[in-house]
Structures are given as C-alpha cells and as structure tokens.
Amino acid sequence: MAARFDPLTPTAARGGRTGVPAGPGRPAGSGARSRAWAPPGPLDLGLTLGPLRRGPADPTFRTTPDGSVWKTSRTPDGPATLRVAAAAHEVRAEAWGPGAAWALDTLPALLGADDDPAAFVPRHRLLHASHRRRPGLRLTRTGLVLESLIPTVLEQKVTADEAYRAWRRLVRQYGEPAPGPRQDLYVMPSARTWTLIPSWDWHKAGVDMKRSATILRAARVASRLEEAAAMDPLAAAQRLEAVPGIGPWTSAETLQRSNGAPDAVTTGDLHLPGIIGYALAGDRDADDAVMLELLAPYAGQRHRAARLVLLAGHAPPRRAPRMYRTDIGKI
C-alpha cells in the first residue's frame, strides 16, 4: 500500500498544481480534461486509493512527492490516465485519453463519495484508536471489475512479490502506454488481449496454469462480470463466483475495490484470521470461523473493521515463514 499522507493538509496542498479549471470535463492543458470536487469530509488519498496499487512498481499506479496519485484504467470508453491531487479544501483531477470523461465523472465514487464512514461504530479499543487516527479513510469504488479481479487472481496462493512481478511483466508486455504526460505508466490489457497471451508468457511471468486458466475464463465473459459493479455485493459475488477458479477470497478482494463493499470480508486468507484474532482477542491461531465471530458486531462494515485492524499494525509475532516462493515447474 502507498505510504500514508493527508493530501488536504496545507503542506501537501502547497505541492499541488494550481490554476486548474474547476468545471467537470473542461479541457485543460496538454490535451487533458479536468474537474474539481469538494469531499464531504476529511480525505486521505493514500489510504483511500492505496488498495488499488499492486506493489511498489505497479505500472498502472504512481504516487509523487507532491501528494498526487496517478492511476490508469481501461474504462468503458477506452484507456484513461487520471491524476488526483489536493488544492486547499478540494480535490483537483486531470485525465487524459478516450476514457478521460468517464474517469472524471466517476471521480467522487473513486474517492469514497458512496462510502458512509459514520455507519461504523467501533466496539474495541484498538478499533476505536485506529478509526480515530484515520478520519480520512474512505472505501474506494472504481466501478471496474476486471481491473481488480485479474491482479487478485494473480495473488491466489502465492507470495505478494510473485504476484506483483507477474502483474508488472504482463501489463508492460501486453498493455499499452498510458495516455498523457507520464511515460512510465501503462494501461492494463483489454479482455481480448488477456485471452491471446500464449502459455509460455504466462510461464515466464511465473503464473501457473490454474491461475492463467481462471483469468482466461473471466476475460471471455468480461462484459457479464463488469455488470457486477452495479449490483449489490451479494449478487455481485454470486456473479463472480460462477466462474470456475473464483472463490469467496477472490470475489471479496475484488468487490472491496470495484464496488466499495464495506462488508466484503476476506475469508480463506492465510494470515488475516490470525491477525484479526490476535488484535481483537489475543488468539493468534484464529481461523475463519473465529474471525467472523469477532467481526460479527460490525456486520455491514466488516471490511472496514478488518482494514482498521491491519492499519493498526497489531500483528502477532512471526513464528516462522509460512509461505515460500512457488516453483511453477513442479505444479
């Protein structure tokens, strides 16, 4: 996740660009379109958009020293590059590419306008403290399913470093240079392009046949899966899990981002139950059942509760490595 920063502080705002027209979709310099938006409350760009970054060298996501966040997307209208920064008490955004207007139209949802932090009532001192320290945390909603689904599938049952490496390699090799001024950003491949990646390139990226087959199946029904972004979380999860290879872990991790689902708690994770159990009950050996019991008081907001636990950094001491790099040649 990106390092935490509060873009609505005067220090960060001084680093932002000024003089950007405020009207939504209004043309700006260098072929950009721009808009300004005033958040209804505190907003921390790093915490809100950080879950969209897949590793420190994600070719679709960058943060810069001035507090700006750069993100690429393959929108329904085509590729887009979005830059989001703070200026005084508003957020200013610029977008490039065929999908620029779509990216600007959906900016409020991306920055958590559909989220309701007031619905969360902490009932544990750790959660109370974590919640109080992070008033700018909002749950993002991208409205794009494959954008979150594919990198999540790559993360199935491998280390984060392996998944991030595969994502970088495949996006740079099969994606396209992002529109706009940055030459270090790429747009993820189209659904059709994912289906055309040969088996040897999946292998070179360290992706085994099970994960690549799941991505191929998802890409072939991409339009049906994208419809899930407008569904309620339960129906959306059922739509995603109808694809073989997509289970509750993958659907929850996807819908947390695409739908901004505050109750999409991740089950089937190797580490999360132990972290939640240790933080809330001192039980480092907790399983999914124990984790769900501990999160039951936060029904409707269980994903937010889990994020606040993770952000608190109260993890159990590591006993020994629990996951090793995968040798896909042995799979």
TrEMBL record:
Source taxon at top rank: Bacteria
Keywords assigned: DNA damage, DNA repair
Bias (Low complexity): 12-45
Annotated stretches, region: Disordered: 1-45
InterPro entries (UniProt xref): Alkylbase_DNA_Glycosylase/TA, DNA_glycosylase
Classification via Gene3D superfamilies: Hypothetical protein, domain 2
Statement: the UniProt record of this protein carries the keyword S-adenosyl-L-methionine: no
PANTHER family linked: DNA GLYCOSYLASE (PTHR43003:SF6), DNA-3-METHYLADENINE GLYCOSYLASE (PTHR43003)
Name used for this protein in its record: 3-methyladenine DNA glycosylase
Species: Streptomyces cirratus
